[in-house]
């Protein structure tokens, strides 16, 4: 049976019935591309043993695929009209609808809402609103119950930043890559959605690491130092890092900063995007 929620005419009719005018602020762009949908499902590989958390199910196009394959799905929807429609459409499916702001509910609470233990293994699958992508990633990756695998529809440029290599690194890249191995599975054109967003999207897959990418005693200290280094990202670190630390109320002398950079093998002329996570960890350790 083909997915009934892919039909553009049906999507438009449903939106009219619900008197729902998609808003950019809530990231309401509804997928109508069967190739993109198939790529998401293939990347996530849901099976009967899987517990899945879906963020932003919308009208149910991905929800339908998940309920055909996964053991149970917990779908988190903020819009009350969409949540009500999902309950009507998926009456007998292995599905729990949670009407809530995903950022205000812990992953463990979502699992419990689906009748599972708060520490049960699960996969995260989502079509994320662009405005909250970073916040949702941190919400799940930093949780006491993080997903083993995440497959996400995100803005193309955000996916590029998350998967960046040395020379193009950012705070976001480090914040994700410390927890997970990140890869872009496919690009999804704007025409794959109703309404079409202004930019292309990407299917991003994150595989949780068995341990953090670097061994650190204090994650907060590590990211304070990273953020300080990126405070003036286009400046050389010998100048940018002392200034960034000072703006945080944690001043360090230029001599202290140069010593920390040297210990990590980082030249003071380098810029923040060229410094690896391992090097930042050494800098943070010296500056403690």
UniProtKB/TrEMBL annotation:
Cross-referenced InterPro entries: KsgA/Erm, rRNA_Ade_diMease-like_C, rRNA_Ade_methylase_Trfase_N, rRNA_adenine_dimethylase, SAM-dependent_MTases_sf
Coiled coil start-end: none
Domain Ribosomal RNA adenine methylase transferase N-terminal: 36-210
Primary localisation category: cytoplasm
NCBIfam families listed in its UniProt record: ksgA
Membership in a protein family: Belongs to the class I-like SAM-binding methyltransferase superfamily. rRNA adenine N(6)-methyltransferase family. RsmA subfamily.
This protein's name: Ribosomal RNA small subunit methyltransferase A
Protein's organism: Candidatus Viridilinea halotolerans
Encoding gene per record: rsmA
């Amino acid at each position: 049976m083909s997915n009934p929620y892919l039909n553009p005419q049906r999507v438009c009719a449903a939106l009219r019935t619900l008197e729902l005018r998609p808003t950019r602020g809530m990231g309401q762009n509804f997928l109508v591309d069967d190739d993109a949908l198939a790529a998401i499902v293939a990347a996530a590989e849901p099976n009967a043993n899987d517990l899945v958390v879906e963020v932003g199910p919308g009208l149910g196009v991905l929800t339908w695929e998940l309920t055909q394959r996964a053991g149970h799905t917990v779908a988190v929807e903020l819009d009350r009209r969409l949540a009500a429609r999902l309950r009507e459409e998926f009456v007998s499916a292995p599905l729990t609808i949670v009407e809530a702001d995903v950022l205000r509910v812990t992953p463990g609470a979502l699992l419990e809402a689906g009748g599972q233990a708060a520490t049960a293994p699960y996969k995260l699958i989502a079509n994320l609103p662009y405005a909250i992508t970073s916040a949702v990633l941190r919400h799940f990756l930093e949780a006491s119950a993080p997903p083993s695998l995440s497959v996400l529809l995100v803005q193309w440029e955000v996916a590029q930043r998350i998967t960046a290599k040395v020379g193009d690194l950012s705070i976001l890249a480090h914040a994700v890559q410390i927890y997970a191995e990140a890869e872009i599975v496919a690009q999804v054109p704007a025409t794959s959605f109703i309404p079409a967003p202004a930019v292309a999207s990407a299917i991003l897959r994150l595989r949780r690491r068995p341990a953090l990418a670097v061994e650190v005693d204090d994650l907060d200290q590590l990211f304070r130092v990273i953020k300080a280094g990126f405070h003036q990202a286009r400046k050389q670190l010998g100048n940018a890092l002392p200034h960034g630390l000072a703006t945080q109320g944690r001043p360090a002398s230029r001599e202290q900063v140069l010593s920390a950079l040297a210990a990590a093998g980082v030249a003071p002329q380098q810029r923040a995007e060229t410094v690896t996570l391992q090097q930042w960890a050494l800098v943070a350790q010296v500056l403690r």
